[in-house]
From TrEMBL:
This is Alpha-glucosidase. CDD domains: AmyAc_SI_OligoGlu_DGase. Keywords: Glycosidase, Hydrolase. The keyword DNA repair does not apply. GO terms for biological process: oligosaccharide catabolic process. GO terms for molecular function: alpha-amylase activity. Belongs to the glycosyl hydrolase 13 family. SUPFAM superfamilies: (Trans)glycosidases (SSF51445), Glycosyl hydrolase domain (SSF51011). The keyword Hydrolase applies. NCBIfam families: PRK10933.1. Residues 31-458 form the Glycosyl hydrolase family 13 catalytic domain. It comes from the Bacteria.
Length: 606
């Protein structure tokens, strides 16, 4: 493990309620999707040596932690989130020696490394699952197996144990002829869910986690960790199974019901997380645990992240990420700033007493925020809205997460053909909704994919204007595994690095502000002008210091709302402006005029 070079918050400043303050209280995390970050061997897939080669860029940006999406050995059915061996590196990404080198070089620069932990499920090619297919093997109960419905032929349509559908399309049950039973998979049929009710499963997971911690990593980001506990009736049956005491929900338009209400934030989740803390992290220092938390609301976030409860340091909540999506996500709705503000406000208020927030708009599963909630129709609008959204996110209370390329204002891929997509969820959704259930037209579904497909975030990192954006050599023997966004000629790190007005330069300032300004890192949060349709305003307060944050999330000039104007108490001087998406002089004129121009954001010290 390593110590960061940035200033630490004094213990006189309260953060998440722990004493002393955790090291990550004023840290910024940067997520790397290794497959798309930097390719060094010309095979079209990013690798660990590529990440190591870019550490100076990341150190210059100022980030404190790198979160790596999975690099374990995997069949790559779901781009590495289907793990076949937790204690080896997939040859696509390199070797364990490459991982050790990355750790050493990152630590030498004061950067910590957090690895993805995927333990709700494994690959169906994991040795545990192969053994589990034999009912007489000690691993027989390591996964969730069920027989066919009574009176039905195993493997026949309708013989599944219940009507649950996978989030990736089709049934959530897969029949295995060798065992003669079905196994549960909430995601891909090659991602069987582990049975966390079995203590042997938990012991094996904790042993693996300890192996990595002893190797020198600094913690884990835990994939869908809030889905490890399922709801069972008193007889051990799942909802909707024959004879179950718990009724399932009705089936939806695609012909399946959802396992989500019964597999998210289940009854033993807190117990499992406390046990994990004891068995893996107790006695260690300098680590970070963050859980991806489907099904968890702001109130539960406070409970799980309260340090007194000894579960996780922080969670990724998703209630705010549904903005712009219908139910299901492929049915698009217009962006509603007040709805987003309301969800973020709930998260902030819930941890006012204890606990902590993860702050994010982008990751490997989300479209690019500048295309989603901003405006990428022109270069000026893209830069302005990328800065506005960055300012908004980073000025909330919590730990900000930057997804690779977000600091450049990278946009959605704008793919126009289905064969350009690689994402399993997207391809399955097109087949299920367009070809099988026929609930969406091909044209409508293509619009949905262009807006919210996960592949929008997975196109290669845009380093420069060369043929493959600097992700791989222009004359590499293999093309990138997914197409480079054509706009890389205009949007890339090389063109922004020395431009003081670039999105990249603005993100450097945001990161430095969190490191150096205790009000930004730990000040209390209070919403202002909560009824305004365009301006998102709030204050951050620590002792006698108070900041007013104003962000216009629209493409037109708007009036500063009344509560904010009252707090400004007349014209704000340029010297009071802490940071602004445009120049400080421009912001001072805007404030004097009582307005914010399109996508303008400003922080004023009151």
């Amino acid at each position: 493990m390593t110590d960061s070079n940035r200033p630490q918050l004094p213990d006189s400043v309260r953060t998440n309620g722990a004493t002393p303050n955790p090291w990550w209280a004023n840290a910024v995390v940067y997520q790397i999707y290794p497959r798309s970050f930097q390719d060094t061997n010309g095979d079209g897939i990013g690798d660990l040596k590529g990440i190591t080669s870019r550490l100076d860029y990341l150190a210059d940006l100022g980030v404190d932690v790198l979160w790596l999406s999975p690099v374990y050995r995997s069949p790559q059915d779901d781009n590495g989130y289907d793990i076949a061996d937790y204690q080896d590196i997939d040859p696509l990404f390199g070797t364990l020696a490459d991982m050790d080198e990355l750790l050493a070089e990152a630590h030498r620069r004061g950067i910590k490394i957090v690895m993805d932990l995927v333990v709700n499920h494994t690959s169906d090619e994991h040795a545990w699952f192969e053994a589990s297919r034999d009912k007489d093997d000690p691993h027989a109960d390591w996964y969730i197996w069920r027989p066919a419905r009574p009176g039905m032929e195993p493997g026949a349509p309708g013989a599944e144990p219940n009507r649950w559908g996978s989030y990736f399309g089709g049934s959530a049950w897969q029949y295995d002829p060798k065992r003669g039973e079905y196994f549960l998979h909430q995601y891909s049929k090659k991602q069987p869910d582990l049975n966390w009710e079995n203590p042997d499963v938990r012991r094996a997971v904790y042993a693996m986690m300890n192996w990595w911690m002893d190797r020198g990593i600094d913690g884990f980001r835990m994939d869908v960790i809030t889905q490890i506990s399922k709801v069972y009736d008193a007889n051990g049956r799942l909802p909707g199974e024959e004879g179950s005491l718990i009724e399932d929900y009705p089936v939806g338009e695609e012909g399946w019901s959802s396992p989500f209400p019964f597999c998210s934030d289940g009854p033993r989740l807190d117990e499992f997380l406390k046990e994990m803390r004891r068995e893996v992290f107790e006695g260690r220092e300098g680590f970070l645990t963050v859980g991806e938390a489907p099904g968890v609301d702001a109130t539960r976030n406070e409970q799980i992240t309260d340090p007194a409860n000894k579960e996780l340091d922080m969670l990724f909540l998703f209630d705010h990420m549904g903005e712009g999506e219908g139910r299901p996500k492929w049915e698009l709705v217009p962006f509603r700033m007040p709805w987003l503000r309301g969800k973020l406000a709930e998260q902030q208020r819930a941890v006012a007493g204890a606990g902590w927030c993860s702050l994010f708009f982008c990751n490997h599963d989300q479209p690019r925020v500048v295309s989603r909630w901003g405006d990428d129709s022109t270069e000026g609008a893209r830069v302005a809205s990328a800065k506005a959204l960055g300012l908004l996110l980073h000025l909330h209370r919590g730990t900000p997460y930057i997804y690779q390329g977000e600091e450049l204002g990278m946009t959605n891929a704008h793919f126009t053909s289905l064969d350009q997509y690689r994402d399993l969820e997207s391809l399955n959704a097109f087949r299920q909704r367009v070809e099988e259930a026929k609930v969406q037209t091909p044209e409508s579904m293509m619009r949905s994919l262009a807006a919210v497909s996960r592949d929008n975030a997975r196109t290669p990192m845009q380093w420069d204007a060369s043929r493959y954006a600097g992700f791989t050599a222009p004359d590499a023997p293999a093309e990138p595994w997914i197409e480079v966004n054509p706009n890389h000629a205009q949007i890339n790190a090389a063109s922004e690095f020395d431009d003081p007005d670039s999105v990249h330069a603005f993100y450097k300032r945001l990161i430095a502000l969190r490191h150096d300004n205790p009000v930004v890192a730990a000040g209390s949060w209070e919403l202002v002008d909560g009824g305004n349709e365009q301006v998102y305003a709030f204050t951050r307060t620590l002792g006698a210091r108070r900041l007013l944050v104003l962000v216009n999330l629209s493409g037109r000039t708007v009036d500063i709302p009344p509560e904010s104007m009252e707090l400004l108490d007349g014209d704000a001087e340029e010297s009071q402006i802490v940071i602004a998406t445009r120049s400080a002089s421009h912001a001072a004129v805007s404030l004097a005029n009582g307005e914010l121009t399109a996508w303008e954001g400003v922080i004023v010290e009151l």
